[in-house]
Amino acid sequence: MEKNIKLMDESELKVSLVGNPDSATIMIPGAKESVYGKEAENLKLWGVDPELGKHFVEGLVDKFQILYFDYEGHRFQHPSPDNLTPENIAKDFLIIADEMNVKKFSYYGYSWLALVGLQLAIRTDRLESLMMGGFPPIDGPYKEMMAVTNKTYEQALNNQNSAVYDEQNYISPEKVDWDSIEVKIDTDQTKQFVTMYKNLIEFDDREIQHQLVTPRLAFAGEQDTIVYGENFGSVTVDISGILQKNKQELEYLGWDIEVLKGSGMDHTKAMQPEAVLSLIKPWLIKNLNITLPE
């Protein structure tokens, strides 16, 4: 089933629901549309699966019903510069579940969509499980990401009419100087993430842990550490380090914690279906008590 659903800001998002309606439902808000040709080749240079959304759905649909959409892509096409707050995003996701007639669901999000999952979990009792990839459930780098998004927004404002690096250019990662790179993107696209992190700057992710009662998993690649240059606030976002430092405490709080090992297992590689599915599928089967055929 496919449906265009009107969100809080009146924009419409295409949402799909596939699989056996009698199965547990998994919400995947980061299911990118497949791309082909030159764009696909460029994504491969960066280690990104150009059919990421499709492969996630295909990998899970035999055991689960999948509610999927590309919320990030939608927000780049329909930015919400002043209203992309955690509360509004959570409301968007609950509107989607209502419109698709899904009462209970598990949630899988990666990076900023993982932190959104945590925000959703403390605002509804409809989650059956929570899976966060590429963002830690405690000691989240909200202040660091605020610095990065602020600097990105400043660049977007300053570079609107200058000939600098454009996100659409086809360039390989090896040729990017991350200390001096300047980014030219739409100011509204960038400002919405400033708004989101601004609303999270006082958020205490330890204080809310007692509200989480369903099975939950957090994971990151062992090399998920990004050192940002001066153009992006001179901060380090050490997802893997934070997760490993707090592993014992998180497990005591009821989380399952995994650090994905392997060559080049950084923020990008650890979000690809090949890395994620082998972790979350058996975890879901175990924690949602899915009965496997003999």
UniProtKB/TrEMBL annotation:
<protein>
    <submittedName>
        <fullName>Alpha/beta hydrolase</fullName>
    </submittedName>
</protein>
<keyword id="KW-0378">Hydrolase</keyword>
<dbReference type="InterPro" id="IPR029058">
    <property type="entry name" value="AB_hydrolase_fold"/>
</dbReference>
<dbReference type="GO" id="GO:0016787">
    <property type="term" value="F:hydrolase activity"/>
</dbReference>
